[in-house]
Amino acid sequence: MRDGRVVKGVRFRDHQVVGEILELAARYRDEGADELVFYDITASPEGRSVDRDWVRRVARVLDIPFCVAGGIRSVGDAEAVLNAGAEKVSVNSPALADPSLIDRLSRRFGSQCVVLGIDSRLTEQGYRAFQLTGDPGRARESGRDVFEWVREAQERGAGEIVLNCMGSDGVRRGYDIEQLRAVRAICQVPLVASGGAGEIAHFAAVFSEGGVDAALAASVFHSGAIAIADLKRELRSAGIEVRL
Amino acid sequence: MDAAIIDSGGANLASLQFAFERLGARTRVTADAREIAAAPRVVLPGVGSATDAMERLHGSAIASLLPSLTQPVLGICLGMQLLFERSEEGSTPCLGILRGQVRRLRAAPGRPVPHMGWNRLETWKADPLLAGIAPGAYFYFVHGYAVPAGELTVAPVEYGEPLSAVVRQGNFWGVQFHPERSAASGARLLGNFLGL
């Protein structure tokens, strides 16, 4: 989401408008998506919270769960989004700046509402968490090791981890299974793979080899390259349990 | 008004209201004991911790009203758990309308906690709340605590052990999943509740 419309970039850059929020929400609902995630990518870099009006409008049309991410810095910010009808809030940059935000959110709403998004990239120091990735000019390495951050966040009460592998984001060459499998080994809460889906086989591989609980994708669905119904049928025939 | 939705202070009442709105039903979110007592149906939702929710119910006199209600009452997720005697979440005494304890789920390899996702209900005792729903229907769960399957269980769900997905005692029903976020099968269940 940027300025009220849905956009998608490649490796977190060059975002193009792909559609209107409500149209896309209804389309994915009808096509059989199990959950939608809305990232307001301009919220954190601009120092503002997500505009909440669209959350209510989305909640009105959706009968599947959805999560809102972007600039949630306080219990009050999260409460407004949850009261507007979202199931979960996802925090990323603000949690890196103040990890106690995770404790406060999970105490108030329960850990099942609190998702930690991690934008991870391999550096010379290993996998590191990046922050403010919505703005290519301001994105920076946070100084945190991804594995230590995953451990700490779970202790603080994060109820789900979305691991967005920046190196593979938007380029459709497959999820970063090696990294996801390593995180899976230390992650007792649901783990969601993000970044890199290009074909149906990539989804099958991330479930069977990466051991993740869910897979998130954007580009391939926005472009129509993969239809959700086809994807789910093929996953089921590969022996992976999905809702049809 | 078709149903009163109890404002137990937790967030996420809007998604429930919108789900009823999609069914053409009129609901009111209220913490007023008289309004709740007079409603044709009552929904006890709940997102948040059992301790917080019970404190709020006691603070507004709803805790003492609820056990005396005779109209259909539907507890959803934490709202279902609150109908039982006690929750391991903060060792909280709950409403005690239904016999049983709420337990913390324990993570195991391949079974992360909180339990989040779409699970199927395979079998159940005949109940008007589940009328017209086909065995194998998927419902959306998101919870870290649960009531083990027992006498009051109408429909179990398997997550390491059999858990209560739907419970009932007389005019009190409870569902561990979120019907308001369970697509067509959830809408059917809420429609059934409006017909009780």
Structure in words:
The complex is a heterodimer of chains A (244) and B (196). Chain A is α/β, with parallel strands linked by helices and 244 residues long. Chain A has helices at 21-31, 53-61, 75-83, 93-97, 100-109, 146-156, 177-184, 200-208, 219-222, 228-237; strands spanning 5-10, 13-20, 36-39, 66-69, 88-91, 114-123, 126-131, 140-145, 160-165, 191-194, 214-216. Chain A has one domain: Alpha-Beta Barrel (TIM Barrel). In chain A, β6 and β7 (126-131) form a beta hairpin. The relative contact order of chain A is 0.12. Chain B has 196 residues and is of the alpha/beta class. Chain B has helices at residues 14-22, 33-38, 50-59, 62-65, 78-82, 183-194, and strands at residues 3-6, 27-30, 42-44, 73-76, 86-87, 92-93, 101-104, 115-121, 137-143, 145-146, 153-158, 162-169, 172-175. The model of chain B has no long low-confidence stretch (mean pLDDT 94).
Short synopsis of the structure:
Chain A has 244 residues and is α/β, with parallel strands linked by helices.
Reconstruct the topology from this structure.
The complex is a heterodimer of chains A (244) and B (196).
Chain A: E1 5-10, E2 13-20, H1 21-31, E3 36-39, H2 53-61, E4 66-69, H3 75-83, E5 88-91, H4 93-97, H5 100-109, E6 114-123, E7 126-131, E8 140-145, H6 146-156, E9 160-165, H7 177-184, E10 191-194, H8 200-208, E11 214-216, H9 219-222, H10 228-237
Parallel strand pairs in A: 3-4, 4-5, 5-6, 6-9, 9-10, 10-11
Antiparallel strand pairs in A: 1-2, 6-7, 7-8
Chain B: E1 3-6, H1 14-22, E2 27-30, H2 33-38, E3 42-44, H3 50-59, H4 62-65, E4 73-76, H5 78-82, E5 86-87, E6 92-93, E7 101-104, E8 115-121, E9 137-143, E10 145-146, E11 153-158, E12 162-169, E13 172-175, H6 183-194
Parallel strand pairs in B: 1-2, 1-3, 3-4, 4-13, 5-7
Antiparallel strand pairs in B: 5-6, 7-10, 8-9, 11-12, 12-13
